[in-house]
């Protein structure tokens, strides 16, 4: 396994919990070997043709062009703005336009002076890791991010294997995506990247083989492209809608799916608070990451009366001690066409602070909902919260875990805390197979029971409290000693997975 700067790899660290739990349940050696590494690691490349771009001139480049006549580009949508300050120059820009170009430079009134950068073919590294399918089809998200790697996707694919088992969803685990910065490409270019990705993967996908879903950098729109590419030309394409989940409800998606991961986070927090007889009304909450998961969690907690006192994302951090206006913040981040990076930075209803200051804010609950390895040892030492509810995948390092445990800060581990997404993905898949459409109330009712039931089993395992209740039986899973909650969650997953191997046996 890879070692980074003398430290264990992301995957190696994540598998420490697996091995600890496997030891505690005395896992069958062959089953352990089956689960230690993915079934398949697919690494390939996708190519697309990119459009020409307008690149802003630097100040010291402007002098020779200050007298350049302005160009009138009449097609309103001909120039597509990107988050890096560039514009994609669509071909329709020439329609009825009056354009003057000198040495490849153009003057666009109201925008500035730009050098035309030629587009052309680009190549991107792509992945699909299929970890395990003993319990059902491979299932896992598609991530578009500039820091994707094999090691990361192996970790996330394994997490999905554990997560589906914990949720009692009859799927296995997978993960994949493309090493690309989606903010640096046009909507059309991202569509073409997605179609090419599915073209390469088509023989490895299917509603009973491998079922992608949204992840960081992707959404329902990307899932629609994927479904179209997979079903194009098929006679009974309606039977194949379940090839992806996280779709728009108008094309086979499920009610409640967009907020499902955040809703699952809140159900876990509710159970944690109920056990401790704590009120969520008035609770102070920190949200780290304000994409789909972070924003949904903030909205739901805010509706319950909690105060979201600070939010951090990759581009900025804001704070308001009396509580941020979450509805206004969601609009600023997700519905403001000027906010190309979809960031909380610049929100007028909060005060800008540093990320370092964010970790030291006095609060009750922290919800990390961004990327992995955010809460390391030094960050864990600074936190002033009672609970860390992991909305992200792998947000806490092993060192961070040890520090949180030593300080008495409780953790709801990711493989139960953010399992709402894959659980409702299963409900979407079921609706697709049955050609049904359930109400949001029905979806959330099923989700609440699934999350709270399995979280209760995990708590029983952690406390070595075997019991049978009207809703669940934790007796088969307790190991005769108390364990930390993260290990307890892994024990539940591994016992459920191991049962399939031991009962079904091994194919030859």
TrEMBL record:
<dbReference type="Pfam" id="PF02812">
    <property type="entry name" value="ELFV_dehydrog_N"/>
</dbReference>
<protein>
    <submittedName>
        <fullName>Glutamate dehydrogenase</fullName>
    </submittedName>
</protein>
<dbReference type="InterPro" id="IPR033922">
    <property type="entry name" value="NAD_bind_Glu_DH"/>
</dbReference>
<dbReference type="InterPro" id="IPR036291">
    <property type="entry name" value="NAD(P)-bd_dom_sf"/>
</dbReference>
<keyword id="KW-0560">Oxidoreductase</keyword>
<comment type="similarity">
    <text>Belongs to the Glu/Leu/Phe/Val dehydrogenases family.</text>
</comment>
<dbReference type="Pfam" id="PF00208">
    <property type="entry name" value="ELFV_dehydrog"/>
</dbReference>
<feature type="domain" description="Glutamate/phenylalanine/leucine/valine/L-tryptophan dehydrogenase C-terminal">
    <location>
        <begin position="254"/>
        <end position="505"/>
    </location>
</feature>
<dbReference type="InterPro" id="IPR033524">
    <property type="entry name" value="Glu/Leu/Phe/Val_DH_AS"/>
</dbReference>
<dbReference type="InterPro" id="IPR006097">
    <property type="entry name" value="Glu/Leu/Phe/Val/Trp_DH_dimer"/>
</dbReference>
<dbReference type="InterPro" id="IPR006095">
    <property type="entry name" value="Glu/Leu/Phe/Val/Trp_DH"/>
</dbReference>
<dbReference type="InterPro" id="IPR006096">
    <property type="entry name" value="Glu/Leu/Phe/Val/Trp_DH_C"/>
</dbReference>
<dbReference type="InterPro" id="IPR046346">
    <property type="entry name" value="Aminoacid_DH-like_N_sf"/>
</dbReference>
């Amino acid at each position: 396994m890879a070692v980074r700067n003398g430290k264990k790899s992301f995957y190696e660290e994540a598998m420490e919990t697996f091995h600890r739990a496997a030891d505690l349940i005395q896992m069958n050696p062959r089953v352990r070997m089956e689960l230690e590494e993915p079934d398949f690691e697919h690494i390939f490349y996708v190519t697309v043709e990119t459009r020409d771009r307008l690149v802003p001139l630097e100040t010291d480049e402007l002098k020779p062009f200050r007298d350049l006549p302005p160009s009138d580009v009449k097609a309103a949508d001909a120039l597509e703005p990107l988050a890096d300050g560039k514009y994609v120059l669509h071909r329709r820009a020439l329609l009825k336009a009056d354009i003057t170009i000198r040495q490849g430079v153009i003057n666009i009134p109201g925008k500035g002076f730009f050098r035309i950068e030629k587009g052309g073919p680009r190549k991107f590294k792509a992945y699909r890791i299929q970890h395990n399918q003993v319990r059902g089809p491979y299932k896992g998200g598609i991530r578009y991010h500039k820091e994707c790697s094999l090691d990361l996707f192996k970790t996330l694919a394994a997490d999905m294997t554990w997560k589906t088992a914990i949720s009692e969803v009859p799927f296995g685990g997978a993960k994949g995506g493309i090493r690309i910065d989606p903010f640096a490409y046009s909507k059309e270019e991202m569509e073409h990247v997605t179609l090419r990705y599915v073209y390469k993967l088509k023989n490895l996908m299917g509603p009973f083989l491998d079922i992608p879903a949204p992840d960081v950098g992707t959404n329902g729109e990307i899932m629609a492209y994927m479904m179209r590419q997979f079903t194009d030309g098929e006679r009974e394409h309606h039977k194949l809608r379940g090839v992806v989940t996280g779709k728009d409800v108008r094309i086979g998606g499920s009610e409640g799916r967009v907020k499902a991961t955040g809703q699952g986070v809140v159900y876990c927090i509710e159970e944690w608070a109920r056990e401790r007889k704590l009120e969520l009304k008035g609770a102070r909450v920190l949200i780290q990451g304000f994409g789909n998961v972070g924003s949904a969690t903030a909205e739901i907690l805010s509706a319950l009366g909690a105060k979201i006192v600070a939010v951090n994302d990759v581009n900025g951090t804001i704070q308001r001690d009396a509580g941020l206006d979450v509805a206004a913040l969601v609009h600023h981040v997700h519905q403001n066409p000027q906010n190309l990076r979809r960031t909380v930075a610049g929100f007028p209803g909060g005060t800008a602070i540093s990320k370092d200051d964010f970790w030291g804010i006095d609060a009750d609950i922290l919800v990390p909902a961004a990327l992995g390895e955010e809460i390391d040892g030094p960050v864990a030492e600074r936190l002033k919260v009672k609970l860390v509810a992991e909305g992200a995948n792998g947000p806490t390092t092993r060192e961070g875990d040890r520090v949180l445990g030593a300080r008495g800060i409780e953790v709801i581990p990711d493989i139960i805390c953010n399992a709402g997404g894959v659980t409702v993905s299963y409900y979407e898949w079921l609706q697709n197979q049955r050609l049904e459409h359930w109400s949001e109330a029905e979806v959330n009712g099923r989700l609440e029971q699934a999350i709270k039931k399995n979280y209760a089993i995990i708590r029983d395992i952690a406390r070595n409290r075997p019991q049978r209740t009207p809703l669940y039986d934790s007796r088969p899973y307790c190991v005769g000693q108390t364990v930390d909650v993260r290990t307890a969650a892994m024990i539940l997953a591994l016992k459920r997975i191991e049962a399939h191997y031991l009962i079904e046996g091994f194919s030859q």
